[in-house]
From TrEMBL:
It comes from the Bacteria. This is ABC transporter ATP-binding protein. Coiled coil: none annotated. GO terms for cellular component: ATP-binding cassette (ABC) transporter complex, substrate-binding subunit-containing.
Amino acid sequence: MADITIRGLTKVYPGGVRALDALDLDVAEGEFFALLGPSGCGKTTLLRTIAGLETATDGTIRLAGSDVTRLPPGRRDVGMVFQDYALFPHINVLDNIAYPLRVKRAARADRYRRAKDAAGLLGLLGLDGRRPAELSGGQQQRVALARALVAEPRIFLLDEPLSNLDARLRLEARTQLKRLQLHLGVTTVFVTHDQAEALALADRIAVMEAGRIRQLGTPVEVFRRPANLFVAAFIGSTPMNLLPGTVRDASVTVAGARLPVPDDVRGEIPDGTDVVCGVRPEYLDFSEVPADPAGGAFGGTVSVIEHLGGSSLVTLDGEGGPVRVVVAEGSEPEPGTEGWAVPRPGRVLLYRDGELVTAAAPAMAPTIKDGGQG
Ligand SMILES: Nc1ncnc2c1ncn2[C@@H]1O[C@H](COP(=O)(O)OP(=O)(O)OP(=O)(O)O)[C@@H](O)[C@H]1O
């Protein structure tokens, strides 16, 4: 096991693409860490540079305190699982798993004992005589994981390990992967472009854009308090409502609602500042009882209802554009209903120049006229 310390890491490919741009990153020992971001942001390049499969143009990589920046992959003591698993087609499961030990010239008996142990850990014992082509995608993925862990590396690097699986198997494999990582406690960095996967699996997530980290935090932190509009738009299964407004008289008027600017940031965003209010559909409550816009409620007409399973996404068309609200199954309003989206206290975020200013919690809890939830 080992921690990872990356400083000023830059990768410029021949041809000039700057895939990593002076990146700093610390991954703690035993951590399950996700690199998340859209296609082309540099996730795979970062993983391959940690593994030694790409050379750094500049900067340093330390594993457990020792500088490995110029070491070849074989001397870094990392296990990597690729997106396509890269199994050898002509040899059976057990030989595939034992392969890294053959490279390390372990004795034959030792090789097979350890390969059997790894196969057992991943529930592959009944399949060990088959060739990769005779396995399902999920089974191939487990063979690839077993092969990576048989050599007992200090660090696991996983490049989109679940992307070849269908939706159902993916969920099962996700749980199994988390269980395995908890059991082994090996420092693990995995790449994904799927925000739900990163939120579900990781202890911490680095959200990347154009070779840089835009936010680093726990799943709860990046979900609740995206540090900028890029992360706000990228994280979440239902997109965050992002509503532009302007500060006037220490309040933001946005989509018909008036949100008081909290005292502690009044100096930072004086009157006249253009801001964006961000609030997740999950943090809004729908109410048919007229709410007071001065309490921060967004009014509108219900236009679209999308069923999500246990809940529904309701779109309200209001004067500032559409606002989306998640409502519980069975309490969906009828299309055409006039209603209000009432933010829960502390859940409206303010962004200036694309960066988070603070939580613009309405000073008072939103008041609802004529009784209701108030
Ligand atoms: N071998 C290469 N030569 C030149 N440019 C490359 C090479 N590999 C990647 N790139 C470029 O570097 C940038 C980062 O690519 P990288 O594969 O790291 O992104 P990614 O975030 O993993 O994307 P994806 O999710 O699509 O795999 C992209 O602009 C890509 O086109």
